[in-house]
# Entry
Amino acid sequence: MNSLYKRNCLRLLDFQTYEVKHIINVARILKSAKKNKREIKYLKNKKIVLIFEKESTRTRCAFEVAAFDQGANVTYLGPGSTHLGYKESIRDTARVLSRMYNGIQYRGHSHHAIETLAQYSEVPVWNGLTERFHPTQILADLLTIQETLPLRKCLSDIKFAYVGDVRNNIGYTLLEAAALFGFDLRLVSPSQFWPKLTFFLKCREQAQKNNGNIICTENIEDGVKNVDFIYSDVWISMGEPETKWKTHINLLKKYQVNSKMLNLTKNSNTKVLHCLPAFHDKDTIMGKKIIKNNNLKFGIEITNQVFESNSKIIFEQSENRLHTIKALMITSLTQNFFL
# Structure
């Protein structure tokens, strides 16, 4: 029996380590099949609804292309196109949609909203992003890391630094990944941006049981020493009031991922990850404004030079959203799916 059948994916800790490994392995096989034009359609005539309270490029495209590749039909409900939470409760919306669709993707603000959606839905619910967790992104990151590791090295062996604002959905989901796989995770950031203590301690305890460790540190040199990967994300989110921008940036300025930081790793093979979009140049309205108003050089959270020198792995991360989301949908919608 497929243990993932009809399962929700609201956060990584919804799963056991072996189940996450299975999703990643399925994604790897599906990726190879697509590239070699040997893909089997496991989701023919399935119907998927995508609820987007927050807009996205990668998440929407990955879910839509994954569904189309697999023969499924998709309905996209963008911001303002439903009565969700305004004229109709989340509970009632779940009960309506789960009678029409085989799976529901939700990308929005409140994690409580997706928990309610899942509670009242009769079909699997997948988290495309909430303010708390972003499991579909980290699944893609784990696949990317696995593809990059030397032959005899596995996920539990890596040393990993996440640099910047740790309190966001990427930081919190990386904590859960470290808890499951037991790798060495360093959260490198000003203490104002450290995760909630109870959640941090819970994840660290589980990571240590799996022979790993998690630390928070303000010291960049200690945090990035000998790491295999440095991960960065934007410091400013869309919709965040501009009054907060300057305070955030002043606190985070010295945590920019640049050549100086890479030199501090003492590891010439350190690779840089970024979930995108990235403010690495002045080619966006928002990026140009932030760089100009805050006297930043060569980028914001990451310099253009470091971004471009790691662009191959960064855009592999982006593509891998497609393959891991496809694996997630297939394993949760196909009762007798085995590879």
